[in-house]
Amino acid sequence: MTILWQSPPVTSALMPTYNRLPVRLVRGSGCRVWDDQGREYLDFVAGIATCTLGHAHPRLVQAVSDQIQQLHHVSNLYQIPLQEELAAFLTGHSCADRVFFANSGAEGNEGAIKLARKYAHVVKGYDQPIIVTAQASFHGRTLATLTATGQPKYQKHFDPLVPGFVYVPYNDLAALTKVVLELEQVAAILLEPIQGEGGVRPGEWDYFQGVRRLCDEKGILLILDEVQSGMGRTGRWWGYECLGIEPDIFSAAKGLGGGIPIGAVLCKEQYSVFQPGDHASTYGGNPLACRAALTVGQAIEELGLLAQVQQRGEQLQRGLQTWVNTYPEWFEQVRGWGLLQGLVLRPEAPFQAAEIVQRALEKGLLLVPAGPQVIRWVPPLIVSETEVDLALERLGEALRG
Fold this sequence. Notes:
Elements: E1 25-29, E2 32-35, E3 40-43, H1 46-49, H2 58-70, H3 81-92, E4 98-102, H4 105-124, E5 130-134, H5 143-148, H6 152-155, E6 165-168, H7 173-182, E7 186-191, E8 194-195, E9 201-202, H8 205-218, E10 221-225, E11 249-252, E12 263-267, H9 287-302, H10 305-326, E13 331-337, E14 340-345, H11 353-362, E15 365-366, E16 368-369, E17 374-377, H12 385-399
Parallel strand pairs: 3-15, 5-6, 5-7, 7-10, 10-11
Antiparallel strand pairs: 1-2, 2-3, 4-12, 8-9, 11-12, 13-14, 14-17, 16-17
């Protein structure tokens, strides 16, 4: 089968930075989208775990429409009431005490890195602080977050990278401990509670318990990248709740604004060392983005979406396991939390994840790879029981060719 991943035509003014599927999406409603030919698709990508409430959700439409008619942007030179309200909501639903708003996950992680480095300099007295991250991680595309990302394929041709990062295997406490004991001036450990781009790999309970103890013993900050796992995606508000620990600093984005760009770095009070002039963002936390994020957070709470995610996640995992059992020569396992699930292909399978994604597209189902051997399932948190069943049915049609 020919894979139709393609870059924009040479006549396009767009930089060819994406391998785009051959479909032009123009409209959405709930968990469905339509292309410019009028064909309907079941969306289990959700902007890659971003459209928390799906497409054109009445609450979000009303909130954003109202806000843009009132005040959509002012500078952070002034007090922004909606920013204060959103910060209070987030700290009231997490272990954090302080919040800085940005525009994206990369910016949230960048802020976390800067915060950890300043803490290391002014509190610990380090002159060359080191941040330890995991192999197969993904933290963003800025130079610092790209360096933090433990995947060389993303770093190729972008040298020189930012100094001060060291990589260890994920879920390997012995390897992490060895590095921490060998190196001086380890300021922070930066991890995803569940690796997303790295293949939908959940963190192990014992590993993260051990990481938390190690950080406490050595005075090291624990930073968690909650860009993909936060805001209810796992069936909890935050991925760290699935691991029985609390971070010192963590980031948020993607599902935070339900598709309206917003990111954040959150921390406990004692690590809030930024002062005026240390960090800033022109658009970060403007009234429009904050109104959207506050609406998303309130909807998660008022519509009982955390329980919904747990139920639909279990249903999706059971259904995917059925296909693993049906095609054991192709699939190895299903892994994930809530509505962040990965269907893992065997290394010897006759195709990679991208081909299954293409086949599913032809059957009216949108999916996204997480590396060459994992098909990622991240539908909106409002997905229904019927829609999960339909998605599993369409996967079956795609597998049968």
